[in-house]
Amino acid sequence: MKNNPEQCISLCGLIQPRRRPVMKRAVGLIAVLCLCLTSNAFAAADGWASANGGTTGGEGGTVVTVDNFTDLEYYAELGATPYIIQVSGTIAIGTGVLEISANKTLIGIGTNPTLVGNVGFKNRDGNIIIENLNITNPYEGSSYDGISLKQDIYNVLVTKCTIYDTGDGAFDISNNSDFVTVSWCKFHYTPSTPDPGHTFACLVGSSDSQEDDAANLRVTYHHNWWTTGVKERMPRVRYGQVHVYNNYYNDLVAGGYCVGVGCGSRIRVENNYFNAVPNPWKDYYSDVPEHPAGHIGWNTGNVFPGCSVPTWATNEYATIFTPPYDYTLDDAADVQTMVQAYAGAGTPYPPHWYSGPYGDFDMDGDVDTDDLETFIGYWLDTYNIADADYDASGRVDLAEFALFAQNWLSGL
Fold first, then answer.
1. Containing domain of residue 392, as a range?
2. What residues are labeled active site?
3. Residue 231: what are its φ and ψ, rounded to 5°?
4. Where are the beta strands (DSSP E) in 81-231?
5. Pair (81, 172) in one structural domain
6. I want to staple 58 with a disulfide (CB 3.0 to 4.6 A). Which of 82, 289, 378, 394 is the partner?
7. Cα end-to-end distance, the chain, whole Å
8. Do 262 and 242 lie in a common domain?
9. Are 164 and 70 members of one domain?
């Protein structure tokens, strides 16, 4: 969406600055906004996926749209060439595995974009983003995960996906994989799932004997929703440093558990909402002398309506690992509403003004030049604009610009 330059210039009437420096800032703001820039809004990595140089996926690469497996496979597996692959409609992978190679972004567009089958990765590749996709795998057996991330895969962000009804795990991470963030995803199963007794969600670490995973398997789970039909592994961890914060758990299968504390695990649990779950966390240490015990630490911000804090585990929050990245904890009391509204494919991200003034897109406390480029991208775009469409008009226009300019000039 491009705006008429005369229309942009007329915005001077919206701003009545009192000092010359402010006028210069306003004129500069308008001038930059009126440049004919183009921008695509894709997810930015946070959590562990922001470490080790960060995760950018196919940023800067060619944008292609695919609606069949032949094209999807071609671009997704095309070496290290950056591509932003827009997935449209439903694409059947079949009983094989899609092996995504380095520097790729897979992002669903349109109505109900869905991959049916096992989404995997080329061994020892990384820098991959998967966003806004429904993923299911209707085949029964141990080879039929929704997403299989194993064999030295690094720097992966999976966000805004709905993963459901898989023959094995919904999303498994193992075998020296590292620097992964899973955010704003929804996991669920129905009675017609391939194996109703195996409704397990997220495994981290495949074997007690794979002790070299202790140097890897750094994973962040935040603002995810584990719900109807899920029984176990939300996540279940061996080794690794796993950060679990601001997630919502409800309507789980009786007899199951949320967080599984396996051998060598180091799990940090913060401000989650465990809504009447069978067991917020469970001991999965096998008590074999040659294998180290697991460790879990939780803060006081978690809530447990209809259930209670397990008594078997020592709270090691004071000594558990500290994440090397910045993050903001939402109050657990707000997580139920927030995650149900915004987790999963086809939903927007929560607007940034939930946590601060309109225009502070990077949420650093100020509306400034760092936010201007982001605003320009939204101004020129017609989709994925919910984070900037303050009045919900379906476009980012003069109303939003006036608010942005007001907050900019007010020093917010």
1. 5-36+357-409
2. 233
3. -110, -45
4. 83-100, 104-121, 126-131, 134-137, 147-149, 154-159, 162-166, 171-173, 178-183, 186-188, 203-204, 218-222, 225-226
5. yes
6. 82
7. 28
8. yes
9. yes
Q: Give the torsion sign (CA, 328, 220, 298, 317).
A: negative
| Residue 334, φ and ψ in degrees, nearest 5 | -90, -10
Lowest mean pLDDT among 40-44, 242-246, 322-326: 40-44
User: What are the pLDDT digits (tens) for 352-374?
Assistant: 887 789 999 887 888 988 898 88
317 and 386 together in one domain = no
Q: Is the peptide bond before 235 cis (omega within 30 degrees of 0)?
A: yes
Q: For the domain that residue 251 is a member of, what is the CATH number?
A: 2.160.20.10
Q: Is the pTM of this model over 0.90?
A: no
| 394 and 307 fall within a common domain | no
Helix (H) or strand (E) holding 399: helix 398-409
The H-assigned helical ranges of 66-105 are 69-76
Provide the domain count of the chain.
2
Beta bridge partners of 90: 114
- Using the predicted structure, report yes or no on whether residue 8 has a pLDDT greater than 70: no
Q: What percent of the chain has pLDDT over 70?
A: 89
Choice among 114-123, 232-241, 291-300, 396-405 with the minimum mean pLDDT: 396-405
